[in-house]
Predict the structure of AAA+ ATPase domain-containing protein.
Amino acid sequence: MRDLDAQPVGGIARRLASILTARGIDPAARLTDPAEPIPALQAAQARIPARYQAAVADHPAVAAWVREVAQAGRPGPEGAPGIAQGRSLLIVGTTGTGKTHQAYGAVRSLLLAGVRLRWKATTAADLYAELRPRPGHDGERELIDLARCPLLIIDDLGAAKSSEWTEEITMRLINRRYNEMLPTLVTTNLGMADLRQHIGDRVASRLTEMTDKVILDGPDRRRSLAAERRRIAATA
């Protein structure tokens, strides 16, 4: 079957073609889907977990990082800034203090600022599970893609069971991002001394240099919200 070019017919079509030509639009050009048919933030919402789709980067240090990355972005083909090189963040806190909330909030804030953004997010446990060698799966290609991604979230680093293999995978991933100075958002429940035991000295050393540490404290937000729901239910 041959593709046939559409031919304008009649006076209305000719006038329309004339208007389009005057506006610098080729009336004979094939129609194609736009590269981004919906706003970037709306597109990202489909990839952000439901619990964090309204997340806001309201911690001063995280908000400052967002501004720094947005201002350092290189202009793209349409003028919008894109992720370039930049500092990373190590977001540390006990369970329920909002680390993951801040990380996804940072992504949403960058998109709201008009930054062109290719990003990925994974937990440490999911990372190792996905890259573990198995028939029919190219874990090496996926590791390289994560290592090159302009912005990467690694959630709960140090929470998965460690081994020589997980340490080597983490080293290869972090080392590539360290060398290329690619922004990375890392969250962990562990202090650096404990984290070092889980991921090794080589990874911990690079994280120390490449990241600014953000410490979140306070009560477990999940337990606080659960207690508030119970209080409301009891008084209803």
Summary: The chain has a mean pLDDT of 82. Residues 40-231 form a domain with the Rossmann fold fold (CATH 3.40.50.300). The chain has one domain: 40-231. Strands lie at 74-75, 81-82, 88-93, 119-123, 151-155, 184-188, 211-216.
